[in-house]
Structure formats: structure tokens, C-alpha cells
């Protein structure tokens, strides 16, 4: 995984206490996700809407949905118990920026209580250009965009539709809009000096051969990390891909691709695809100790 030798000093300064990015930090600093973003504005073929967004969270688990007020209470309770808490993320269960008010209200409430906490979000990028300035107003030091291709023809095989400006767009038309908005969002974040990590889901036969091109483009635009995740596609997850028999990559195929991308944007190999309500040090999840029924009313 990444270390001080892999990135510019100003980037390292921002990520060194971040459990997801620094090999050292992930033993000492904890992260927490709150599931305040239930809805999504696109359809990915690898998604099952009953569960968490597969973009950042492990697909196939149901996270506890919270209002911003509940989320703030939960963060306060966790911070009491877990002084190493350094990062709060919104990673679903849908898209963190589709109903962005909930995400920003959560950050505003938590920021008022715990001014040293850093925030991050993950998004499919469709709504990102509309929220660039608001993102800079909160202590958001990095954003994850899931970007699986830079070619709308490939995009049409991954995204059956998107919902944009009050209507549904399908096929290449929809994918073209999504991909343009992702690029606009990426450029806007870089211009505002917010770190950008790119997640790509590796889908054999659809975008696996194309991910080196994605890596080249996002590196050129200034993304600081590229995290290639395997498609987890099983019929029991109920994803469209699972139902059509689309398989995920083998561990050897994933490693081979990651090795080929080795010279590109720093690759992150240890992302655990934590669930949308994960709590604790990386690699542990104490979420079940902090469900809402265990949080006192009076914590804030
Ligand atoms: Fe599902 Fe996430 Fe894709 Fe939305 S962005 S369809 S929640 S995987
Ligand atoms: Fe970190 Fe990846 Fe887990 Fe997000 S999903 S908290 S980036 S390890």
C-alpha cells in the first residue's frame, strides 16, 4: 500500500493520519462510515438496491439507515469510546451526493461537535459538479469517485440507466452524461485541492482490458490513488450481472491487472470495501456495538 515515497509531500501530509491510505496510520487511527444516503441516481449492473452501494462498501450487506441527527449522535457516542477516531465517511448505502443535503447536514452537525474529525465521501460522480463548492466548505479532504470506464460504449454495458435533470437516460446517452460529469467532477476537485481517489470495479470481458486506459486518464487529471476492486457477482446477490452469468475476476487476474497498473496512479491494494456503517480500525468492524438502539438519547 501507499507510503511517503509514493506521493508528493503535500498529499502525504493530508493522508498520513488516514487509516485507509497509510500503512502506519491504519494501526492507530479509526474510521467510521454512517449510512445517511439511502437513494441513488444511477443503476449499475453490479448493484443490488437492497444492499449497500458496491462502489465503496462491500455489496450484499444491509447497513443501518440513519437520519443526519441520528448519525451525529452515533458519531459522538463512538468518539467517546474510540479516541482514535479520525475519519468520518459517507459511503452509501446509495450515492452520497444524490440527496446531498443529508450528507452535508451530517457533516455540519458532526463538525460542530468534533472539529478535528476529517470527512470523506464516495460517489458515482453524477451529481459531483453541482456540489464542488459546498464540498470545500466542509472539512472534506478527499473524495472517492467510482469510475469504471472512459468510453461510453463500455459504459452502456455497465450502467443501464441514469437519472439526470428529471428524467431517465439509457444506453450510450446515459453513460456519456455520467462519464462527462465524472470527469468534470474530478477536474473540479483537483482545482479545489481536494484529494481524489478513483475506485474501479474490474469486470472481466467488459472493462478489464480498458482499465489501463482509465488509469492513464485519471493519473493525468491528478487523482492520487487508483483502487481496482473485483466485481463480486453472485446470483444470490441478485445483481444484474450475477443474473446474466457475468463472473468476477479470479485473484490471479486481479493481481495481474494491479501489477500492470503498478506504474500508474498509486494503487491501493488494501482497501477492504468496508460496509457503509463500518466502525473501527481498518480490518475490524465494531459497527454492531454501536447500533442506534445502543446509543443513549442524551449523548450530544
Ligand atoms: Fe448501486 Fe452504488 Fe451503483 Fe448506485 S452507484 S447503482 S448504489 S452500486
Ligand atoms: Fe477505507 Fe476502503 Fe474501507 Fe473506505 S472502503 S474506509 S477507503 S478501506
Task: Please tell me about this protein's structure.
This protein has 300 residues and is of the alpha/beta class. It has one domain (4-283): Aldolase class I (TIM Barrel), CATH 3.20.20. 31% of the residues lie in helices and 17% in strands. The chain is built from nine helices and ten strands. The chain has a seven-stranded mixed beta sheet with strand order 9-8-5-4-3-1-10. The chain has a three-stranded antiparallel beta sheet with strand order 2-6-7. Helix 3 (100-113) links the parallel strand 3 and strand 4. Helix 2 (68-81) runs parallel beside helix 3 (100-113) and helix 5 (152-158) packs across helix 6. The longest helix has 21 residues, at 171-191. The protein is globular, with a radius of gyration of 18 Å. The model has no long low-confidence stretch (mean pLDDT 85).
Topology:
Layout: H1 9-15, E1 30-33, E2 42-43, H2 68-81, E3 85-90, H3 100-113, E4 118-123, H4 132-137, E5 140-146, H5 152-158, E6 161-164, E7 167-170, H6 171-191, E8 195-202, H7 211-221, E9 225-230, H8 240-243, H9 251-260, E10 279-281
Parallel strand pairs: 1-3, 3-4, 4-5, 5-8, 8-9
Antiparallel strand pairs: 1-10, 2-6, 6-7
The protein binds iron/sulfur cluster (2 copies).
One iron/sulfur cluster (SF4) binds at residues 40, 42-44, 47, 53-55, 94-95, 124.
Amino acid at each position: 500500500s501507499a507510503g511517503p515515497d509514493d506521493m508528493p509531500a503535500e498529499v502525504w501530509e493530508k493522508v498520513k493520519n488516514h487509516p485507509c491510505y497509510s500503512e502506519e496510520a491504519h494501526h492507530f487511527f479509526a474510521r467510521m462510515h454512517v449510512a445517511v444516503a439511502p437513494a441513488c441516481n444511477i443503476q449499475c449492473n453490479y448493484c443490488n438496491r437492497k444492499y449497500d452501494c458496491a462502489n465503496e462498501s462491500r455489496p450484499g450487506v444491509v447497513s443501518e439507515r440513519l437520519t443526519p441527527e441520528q448519525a451525529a449522535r452515533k458519531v459522538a457516542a463512538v468518539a467517546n469510546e474510540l479516541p482514535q477516531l479520525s475519519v468520518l465517511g459517507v459511503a452509501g448505502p446509495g450515492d452520497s451526493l444524490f440527496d446531498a443535503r443529508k450528507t452535508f447536514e451530517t457533516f455540519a452537525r458532526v463538525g460542530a461537535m468534533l472539529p478535528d474529525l476529517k470527512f470523506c465521501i464516495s460517489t458515482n460522480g453524477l451529481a459531483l459538479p453541482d456540489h464542488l463548492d459546498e464540498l470545500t466548505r466542509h472539512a472534506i479532504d478527499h473524495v472517492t469517485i467510482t469510475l469504471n470506464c472512459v468510453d461510453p460504449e463500455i459504459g452502456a454495458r455497465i450502467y443501464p440507466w441514469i437519472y439526470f435533470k428529471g428524467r431517465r437516460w439509457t444506453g450510450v446517452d446515459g453513460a456519456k452524461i455520467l462519464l462527462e460529469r465524472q470527469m468534470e467532477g474530478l477536474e473540479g476537485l483537483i482545482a479545489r485541492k481536494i484529494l481524489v481517489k478513483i475506485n474501479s470495479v474490474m469486470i472481466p470481458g467488459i472493462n478489464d482490458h480498458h482499465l489501463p486506459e482509465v488509469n492513464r486518464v485519471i493519473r493525468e487529471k491528478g487523482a492520487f490513488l487508483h483502487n481496482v476492486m473485483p466485481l463480486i457477482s453472485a446470483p444470490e446477490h441478485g445483481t444484474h450481472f450475477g443474473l446474466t452469468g457475468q463472473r468476477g475476476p479470479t485473484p490471479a487476474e486481479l493481481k495481474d491487472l494491479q501489477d500492470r497498473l503498478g506504474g500508474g496512479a498509486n494503487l491501493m491494494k488494501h482497501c477492504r470495501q468496508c460496509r457503509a456503517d463500518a466502525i473501527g480500525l481498518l480490518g475490524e468492524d465494531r459497527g454492531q456495538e454501536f447500533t442506534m438502539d445502543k446509543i443513549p438519547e442524551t449523548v450530544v
